Amino acid sequence: MNRLFFRFFVLVMLSISAAAFIVYFAINRLFGDPLESIARNQAAAQIFLLEQYVDQAPVDGWLDRLNKVREVSDVRFDLIPLASARQQLPSREREAFERGEVVIDIANKALFRRVDLTGDKYIGSNEEAIYAQNLPIDIKVALQMEAVRYVIVALALLIPIGIWSRSHWRGLQILMKVADRFGSGQLKVRAQMKPGDSIYPLAERINHMADRIETLLEAQRGLLHSVSHEIRTPIARLEFALELLHDTVGDTVLEKRIGSMQGDLTELKSLVSELLGMARLDSEQPLRYETFDVTEALRNCANGLPPAEVSLDVSVPDGLGTYYGDCRLLMRATGNLLRNAQKYANGQVALSAARKLGGVTILVDDDGAGIPEEEREKVFEPFYRLDRSRDRNTGGFGLGLSIASKAVSLHGGTLKIETSPLGGARFVITLPPA
Which GO molecular function annotations are given, in alphabetical order (predicted)? Predict the structure, then answer.
């Protein structure tokens, strides 16, 4: 919230500063320099004496009154030649000076004015100008006053901006939490906001989107689960029929074909089991949490693998301690990784584990061809296979890695792929502290 508040406050203050400069230049262009107006107001007493007292004297008494003003005023009034005055004045102010107006020199705290345009005051007065110095002009005070006003405005804006930012920030925090929970699989979660909240329309649209996504996912899961269950029945019938047919056939060629059909049926049965497993992972069924010994569980998982032509090196040390999670699900993920490594390894697979920062790290290495970096995210997608062949011994179904990724994700962990020291792929399971 502090970051949002600060950024918005800085934006507002920059806008106000820009507006102040624009106003200043606009007024300067249309009505003259505002600083000159301030200086003229500060020198108003001296201008008043000059215009209302000295200039109102009789023709032969003008100089006498000017001398009296000199005696009582702290301002120094001098008479200088017009040429000298014109030389000291900027070109943009000479026109006003020639018209007989009072011209303020802010920088030198002085003013200029012609004595007379026609020489009526005294002989030669039309060739002289009044030069008043040490005027009580202090632009710094005026600028300080403007700065104080600016600071007061800025501080006054802090309260409404803070209230506005806080209301928006609280709403955004709610939406962030809803998005995180929804993304983690809690499809029932929704943003609860009042109609008067500033981001209520956005929350409503997110809720509608969540409803639609939940409906689609539930329909997909239901269809997948139902179809998988329904397929099991004809599979069982085909298995039984093939068993009977195999027992009654005496033709060797036909027996081989029946055996191939039985292999295809076994593959189909395995696929249905994998689909049901995926459906269960996607459902909202709670995990079966328990405290289990990590070393024992990993060794049992490795020992339960089917025989393979490649060697399996299990380097799981004693004393890894216990972990609180769904042991069956985590070992299934590890088993899927091991079977995948056995499938693609040239001759060696390694399983290792370590305890780090209260969590558990499990490594599965192989000496196969490895996985290209551009493919490492895609292999966790359902039905995605690096080997595009349909051979059941190499291609698989493309579900094992997806199931492993989901199982680890449900525990709040991560599953990533690296390059193995053995030369092939390394799968790294990182489980957070339970």
Answer: ATP binding; phosphorelay sensor kinase activity
Contact criterion met (CB below 8 Å) for 114 and 82? yes
Residue 48: which of 111, 142, 107 has the closest Cα?
Answer: 111
Amino acid at 274: E
Asked if residue 112 lies in contact with residue 100, where contact means CB atoms within 8 angstroms, the answer is no
Are the C-beta atoms of 325 and 431 separated by less than 8 Å?
yes
- Residue 90 burial (10 A CB sphere; 0-12, 13-18, 19+): exposed
**Which region holds residue 115: left if phi is over 0, alpha if psi is between -120 and 50, else beta?**
alpha
pLDDT at 225: 66
Is 209:237 a contact under the CB 8 Å cutoff?
no
Report d(CA 83, CA 126) in Å as an integer: 12
For the beta carbon of residue 192, count every other beta carbon within 10 angstroms.
10
* CA proximity to 319, closest of 299, 337, 303: 299
**244 within 8 A of 235, measured Cβ to Cβ:** no
Task: Name the DSSP letter for residue 158.
Answer: H
| Alpha carbons 419 and 313: distance in angstroms, whole number | 18
State the pairing for strand pair 290-293/311-315: unpaired
Give SS3 for 355. strand
Domain limits, the chain: 33-137, 200-282, 290-431
Reported as a single tens digit per residue, the pLDDT across 147-169 is: 788 778 777 877 777 777 777 77
pLDDT tens-digit map of 403-419 = 888 889 888 899 999 99
Measured distance CA(163)–CA(175) in Å, rounded: 19
CA dihedral 318, 322, 327, 332 (to 10 degrees): -30
Q: Which residue has the tokens 């997948």?
A: 224
Domain 200-282 has CATH 1.20.120.80: no
- The residue length of the chain stands at 434
Query: Per DSSP, what are the bridge partners of residue 363?
Result: 352, 428
Residue 405 Cα distances to 18, 133, 429, angstroms: 54, 87, 9
Q: Which CATH class is domain 290-431?
A: alpha beta
